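Usage

Read records sequentially. Each one opens with the input sequence:
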Amino acid sequence: MKSNYLFAIAMAGVNLAANADEPAVARGQALFQKNMCFTCHGTVGQGGERSAGPRIAPDPWPVEAIKLQLRRPRQDMPRYDEKFVGNQDVDDIRAYLASLPTAPQAKDIPLLSRM
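and closes with the structure output:
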């Protein structure tokens, strides 16, 4: 059930790209997968299980803060040098993360509101 919900959020985020730069969002989503960001941050930036990585979407940091974290990471995050993840790549990844919608509150989910 959880994976279906996350898939729906991911697809809604891609559809929201109509208001954003669709090619940048599509590239960003592909780069997020290619660079294995999802392994710690989840497939839609929701954060990893057991504190693997923090939530980074749907309200991502400013692009300069993301670049700083990638180039000089804190804690356990691997370093992503500019020659492997260029500045345009970071811009596109951020566009993807920013395109993802905010998840509904539990009270707004019919199944959960009956509990």
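Summary fields computed downstream for this record:
- DSSP finds six helices and no strands in the chain.
- Residues 2-16 form the longest helix (15 residues).
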